[in-house]
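ugh ok fine here u go
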Amino acid sequence: MNKFGLFIAKHRKLVLIIATLLLLPSLYGAAMTRINYDILTYLPKDLESVKGQEILNDVFNSSATGMLVIENMEPKDVVKVKDKISKIEGVESVVWVDDFLDISIPKDMLPEELKEMFYRENSTLVMIKFANESSSPITQQAIVDIRGVLDKQSFLSGMAAVLKDTKDLADKQTPIYVALAVILATIILMLTLESTIVPFIILISIGYAILYNFGTNMLLGDISYITKSLAAVLQLGVTLDYSIFLLHRYEEECEKLEDNKEEAMGHAIAATASSIVGSSLTTIAGFLAIAFMELTIGKDIGLVMAKGVMFGVLSVLTILPALILVFDRLINRFNHGTILPEFNGLGKLVTKHYRLFILIGILIFLPAFYGEKNNEVYYNLDESLPDDMESIVAFRKLKDEYDMMTTHMVLLSKDVPNYHIKQMIGEIEKLEGIENVLSYQKLIGPSIPENFIPEAIKDRFEQGDYKQIIINSEYKAATDEQNTQIEEIERIVKKYDKTGIITGEGVLTKDLIGIADRDFKRVSTISNIAVFIIILLVFTSVSIPIFLILAITLAIFINMGIPYYTGNSIPFIASIVIGSIQLGATVDYAILLTTRYREEIKNGHDKFTAMEISVRESAKSIITSGLTFFASTIGVAVISEMELVKSLSAMIARGALISTGVILFILPGVLIATESFISSTTKNWSKERKDKAEKGRIAYESK
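structure:
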């Protein structure tokens, strides 16, 4: 590593030229990476509901359906609007009452089934079938084109419209997130570092790593909009530590080698490489644990962020040293003091009253654990979007006027006779919360003979080996009422066709709930085991990993428990990933404190003096890291209009501060109280005799 460090220092301009040239393919890769805005597409492919969606797409070409509510419009004008929409690329078909009967027939004389399906007091409902899935570029452009022919009396709802609005909002706000994170992180670094220029150099080096990360996302095929919105901000927050570690060591080496900056940097790289790589392993482990989610959005977030940390480490060991040496004179010209005090008082406080802080930790644990276990979690995408968004306004309109909260699609074998389907529909319509059932079999009767049903309508409900029924529900997806209703529909469907499939947003969301619960347990277990093993190897200790993970777990419970006591619901993805992110990103602070504690114990200090020194010397780095992590994420939480992104960012930012507090106030007491146990379960913990340590304790307490 000494040779590597000296090579980077001596060839700093070459390093920067190569690093800058690599930005060109990175920018291309970032531009070519597809963004996925549909969370439901991350469900496992072996689910029956997902297979149903594939059948809808492949056989019926109707994986996406839009509902258009038109108010106060004459039938002839509705027909004109319908015709315009039908000609738009990406629209498969448009269904309205004129597909069944002539519009010259007064509304009051229409069959009850048609009136119930298409009319309310001052509005009518038009159903739009798209040729491609909701998230496809063709469907998304079709949404734009449809809105172009509508007036203020018309409201377009459906998953495709929601995804379009989500995309537009995410694309608009993501650059603002990054800019705000950079500004706030710069302010914190300026206040806590001694140079005005160094914060900009650090952020430039991290910027290289972020662009490399986003450029290589092309290799993954696509990434989710959540990952796109948060990846840069998170990467900035979790890799700033490494830059600060290198900078502090370089300053230390410069004091020893005043006349040779290159050699000082070479030594700094060599000295910090192992600690930076070691620290990054816990963060990478936390993110990779997320990649083991059954819901494959975890793989998306986990791989992108783990990759980002690796690029961050490479950047700190190559690009940052090169930039520091190139701008060395400028850095030294603009030095100033910092706002951070010396932490002598903090060290004395937490060691003298260590039992009190342990008691506080125990007392906090129980309500924090209870709050974390009883959080209200939401699964609906529409809940995370602004109420004034076009698709959400239309969704509310559909709910209020037509009682359509969600739509279920039932797929039956073509061999099921029509009279059985009519009987099945009759049973389904008797269920609580069913608004209406759409099927051409339902329309067959005395008022509308089967040969009166247009072929276009039959084709809408019967293709290939399948017949389709559309069920509109009054219940919201992810509610207990909706899930019970789905189970009842499934029971009825299976009675008439054992191979029948029920799918749609409500069914997919029901499956999502079950998977999210399993994923939470899986991710939590994997991240804890991975971090345990890494800390065990770092300290060659069985006990230290337990105490450090317990400390961060307390911080996670406090963080996750707060929404319960403030009455806020959290997005389901937060309940799965926040723990791993907080554990992986902030356990470094605990490792830093414990490493210094072991060092002071080996220097012959008793456990109290050793901890007092450790807190005093480590607090500045821990607080700087915690504040920069907080600053880089809190801005997103404040300005984001997407509740999902807002909640994730707020919890990550809050978690950084809580972890910092727990490590500086509660962990020292735990390490002091268990020092003898740690000594007996850790290889080469201390060379000092136990009686000497005991004498030191007595001397300390007598003071």
